[in-house]
């Protein structure tokens, strides 16, 4: 199952908005996923396949990260734009040679 972490500064506002948007997209794509939201300071304690966040927090997450960890971070420009979230999730899966059907 795909594990997604949504990250923001306080773990309440924008990360929750990203989570709700991502859940709607994943439901549409019929991809089962475990999705959670958290603060930037607690993000390192979570195991995830993908991290959805905005640029400010992506820069912090990738500052001392390994190449593999950097590849997990997906930057969103419009946090509640379902089209952008869908495109980024699909691109993430394709980059790893995974198909939407792999998660059905």
TrEMBL record:
CDD domains per record: PTS_IIB_ascorbate
Q: Does the keyword Transport apply?
A: yes
The record ties this protein, via Pfam families, to: PTS_IIB
- The source's superkingdom equals Bacteria
Coiled coil location: none
> What keywords were assigned to this record?
Phosphotransferase system, Sugar transport, Transferase, Transport
Query: Which Gene Ontology terms describe the biological processes this protein takes part in?
Result: phosphoenolpyruvate-dependent sugar phosphotransferase system
Q: Which GO terms describe its molecular function?
A: protein-N(PI)-phosphohistidine-sugar phosphotransferase activity
InterPro entries from the xrefs?
PTS_EIIB-like_sf, PTS_EIIB_2, PTS_EIIB_2/3
Q: Among its keywords, does the record have Ligase?
A: no
Q: List residues of the PTS EIIB type-2 domain.
A: 2-97
What protein does this entry describe?
A: PTS sugar transporter subunit IIB
């Amino acid at each position: 199952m795909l594990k997604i972490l949504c990250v923001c500064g306080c773990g309440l506002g924008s990360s929750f908005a990203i989570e709700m948007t991502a859940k709607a997209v994943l439901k549409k794509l019929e991809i089962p996923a475990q999705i959670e939201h958290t603060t930037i300071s607690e993000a390192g304690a979570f195991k995830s396949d993908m991290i959805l966040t905005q640029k400010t927090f992506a820069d912090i997450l990738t500052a001392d990260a390994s190449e593999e960890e950097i590849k997990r971070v997906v930057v969103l420009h419009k946090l509640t734009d379902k089209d952008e979230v869908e495109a980024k999730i699909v691109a993430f899966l394709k980059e790893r040679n995974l198909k939407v059907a792999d998660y059905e």
